[in-house]
Amino acid sequence: MRPRVPAAAIPTDLAPLPTPQSTGLTRELLTPPAAAPIQPRSDYLLVLSASLIALGLALFIVFHAFRGYRRNDSVRMLYLATGLCLITVVPTALSLAVDTVGQLVALDPRVYTVYQPLANRASEVLGLCALLYSLLVTPAESG
């Protein structure tokens, strides 16, 4: 059994809560920091246009590599086109898609810091493997 506390031992007048003035805190310390500035639309359009130009050039190069495969019936050119596509087109298109969706809906920050870079690096590694294979396969094996 717990001992009973006499009613006289319980304080009835509680001390007031400390105020910012009594603790020495100033108004500057108590105000929350301002939100990060929103990126101006012109900056976003500049990055978007540069990305679209890079994507267009990458597609042009991949298209010509694929035409070389069709014209010469060379598997080496097919792997070259695939590797170039995985290195240049896929990461750029993925970045554009994620940024566009991010402008429309609030994405988790991990999408930008973990998932998108991971997908980009995986695409680039696969593209480099395809390029390496296109360089190492001998013409007799390429059909």
Automatic annotation (TrEMBL):
<keyword id="KW-1133">Transmembrane helix</keyword>
<feature type="transmembrane region" description="Helical">
    <location>
        <begin position="44"/>
        <end position="66"/>
    </location>
</feature>
<dbReference type="Pfam" id="PF24365">
    <property type="entry name" value="DUF7521"/>
</dbReference>
<feature type="transmembrane region" description="Helical">
    <location>
        <begin position="78"/>
        <end position="98"/>
    </location>
</feature>
<dbReference type="InterPro" id="IPR055943">
    <property type="entry name" value="DUF7521"/>
</dbReference>
<keyword id="KW-0472">Membrane</keyword>
<keyword id="KW-0812">Transmembrane</keyword>
<protein>
    <submittedName>
        <fullName>Uncharacterized protein</fullName>
    </submittedName>
</protein>
